[in-house]
Amino acid sequence: MALNRIHLREQLVLVEMTDALQLRIDARRYQTAAREIRLTLRDELGALPMHVFASELLPALQTTAQNNYFERHRRFAETDGGVSAAQAQRLADACLHRAAARDPRR
């Protein structure tokens, strides 16, 4: 599937406008647009580094890219360059370990 930038941009605008409560569309149309964004990012843009998708102006694009990354790698994406992925993994593991230690069911 060739990358259709105009179509991708239209779908992003549709989702962003709906998320910002500037546009009302039915759920099926929203889901279709979101699915097309997700598949396009996964199939066509998946090789790009995650920081490319870090955008305050297009949070749906960033969120979709992060979800695709998590789905593929089973870990969270680091988009802002503030923490290395290895350090983020160690912090997450430590947090999960502390949470498990406090679990009353254990």
Number of discrete domains: 1
Q: Distance between the terminal alpha carbons, to the nearest Å?
A: 49 Å
Please describe the biggest sheet, giving its number of strands, its sense, and whether it closes into a barrel.
none
Strand content: under 5%
> Order of SSEs, N→C?
HHHH
- Average predicted local confidence, pLDDT: 76
Number of strands: 0
The computed structural class is mainly alpha
Secondary structure: helix percent: 55-70%
Number of helical regions? 4
Shape: globular
Q: Uncertain regions: pLDDT < 50 for 5+ in a row?
A: none
Radius of gyration: 17 Å
Brief characterization of the structure:
With 106 residues, this protein is mainly α.
Topology:
Elements: H1 5-19, H2 27-44, H3 59-73, H4 85-102
Describe the protein.
With 106 residues, this protein is an all-alpha fold. The chain has one domain (5-102). 62% of the residues lie in helices and 0% in strands. The protein is built from four helices and no strands. The protein has helices spanning 5-19, 27-44, 59-73, 85-102. The longest helix has 18 residues, at 27-44. The mean pLDDT is 76.
What are the defining features of this structure?
globular, 106 residues, mainly alpha, single chain
